[in-house]
Amino acid sequence: MTNADRYLVDDIHNILDNGYKDENPRPKYEDGTPAYTISVNHVMRKYDLSRGEFPISTLRKQAWKTGIREIFTIYTKPTNVLSEMEELKVTWWTPWDIGDGTIGQRYGATVKRYDLLNNLIADIKKDPYGRRKIMSLWQESDLRETPGLAPCAFLTIWNVRGKYLDMCMVQRSGDMLTASGAGGINEIQYAALLLMVSRATGYEAGVFTHFVANEQIYDRHIENAHELLRRAESLDDNGPTPMLVLHKNAGCDLSSITTEDFELVDYTPMEPQLKFELGI
Predict the structure, then answer these.
(1) Helix (H, G, I), strand (E, B) or coil at 275
(2) How far, in whole angstroms, is CA 167 from its chain's centroid?
(3) Mean pLDDT of all residues in the chain?
């Protein structure tokens, strides 16, 4: 059982035992039914990558390569154009097409407009111990410029600590079992981003902390939540610990890194895969 598995079990119990139901939800399922959630506020998880604590759950198979490809579309090959995202095999954004083949002035479009990643890397190199190393996807002018889904994972804060680079990520809202939860896609992809920025700036990846302001389980995901709890009961606490490795020959040019430069070792997720109906 990984640290992420332990966090996930605790967080599922917390939501099922202490969560509150929302009112008048914006998302709807494909059949038009309102997608209600049970939520808790202010969830935090912390992993030390330098000690092998990579945030990936083994309770179900995670599409880690697709998650990393999505982080490319936001930061290293930034785009908001659906066809360009699909070229990188990121296909889950189609429901958020604003009608012009894009997701609006969001995510990768914001990173590109303000050159956020290159500015961050330059600042880390120039002033390592400065405390203003922030990338924010929440730009009010961008949000007002076009319609589109407001960024969920929207803020990263970076700090140098000796030979290590630490990062925390702030998420305003998270669908726990499909993306934002412990060891899910959001944690995998932002931990991968920490590995890449550490490589580009000459540091080792250190602590990754994830804060979710509001984390939910959708009403149609509750049975899957119980299944994950059942699976956790059979896990061995002393099993192998998965780790994502960015190979040394990948180099420091982040725009040239591909998923083939990463290797996920000792990862044996539980089967069969679970299916989750999305609230759009």
Answers:
(1) coil
(2) 13
(3) 97
Contact between residue 244 and residue 47 where contact means Cβ atoms under 8 Å apart: no
Is 134 within a domain?
yes
Has residue 109 been placed in a domain?
yes
Looking at 152, 157, 170, 278, which residue is catalytic? 152
Half-sphere exposure of 32 (CA within 13 A, CB side): 0
Rg of the chain over all Cα atoms, to the nearest angstrom = 18
* Span 143-165, average pLDDT: 98
Residue 251 has pLDDT above 90, yes or no: no
Q: What is the pLDDT of residues 16-50, one digit of tens each?
A: 999 999 999 999 999 999 999 999 999 999 999 99
Of the chain, the end-to-end C-alpha distance in Å amounts to 32
pTM, entire model? 0.97
- Whether the upstream peptide bond of residue 272 has omega within 30° of 0, thus cis, is yes
39 domain-assigned? yes
152 is catalytic: yes
Q: What is the pLDDT of residue 239?
A: 75
Among 248, 241, 232, CA closest to 264: 241
CA–CA separation, 4 vs 176, rounded Å?
12
Half-sphere exposure of 117 (CA within 13 A, CB side): 23
Q: How many distinct structural domains can be found in the chain?
A: 1
Q: What is the DSSP letter of 272?
A: S
Residue 197 lies in a domain: yes
Domain that includes residue 42, residue range: 3-265
222 closest CA partner among 260, 189, 175, 154: 175
Instruction: List the CATH number of the domain containing 25.
Output: 3.30.572.10
